[in-house]
User: What shape does this take?
Amino acid sequence: MQVVNEILADKGKRVYSVSPTSSAHAALSMMVDKGIGSVLVIEGDQILGILSERDYLRKVALGRDASPDATVEQIMTSQVLCVRPDQPIDECMALMTDKRVRHLPVVQDGRVVGVVSIGDLVKAVISEQKFIIKQLENYIAG
Assistant: This one.
């Protein structure tokens, strides 16, 4: 089974982040421009939270918890689940499924080194399964 670091090697380690005082609307615009589903909320070297499209939709767009002028800090998810670069993909998928999250920051030695999404994990699993199937077909064919 692959580990998180192998996914980061393929997709890159680019991390998009915003400050807690940024406008939630500006953060959402960044997500749209970059084609991503979440941004980390970072101050200095510390992860304070994560803001996803779903957070914005539920709390701002539907007008439930925050106004359209809300800051990132007002609507972010502050309990951030993180994984290590050496963590197996199946553990990450189980964590995402259990906690119902779609993005996991990857932290090594207290530093964010990347972010993986559920899509990244599924793509890696499918690729690995295709490889195994091909190997089995070659074995059977002789």
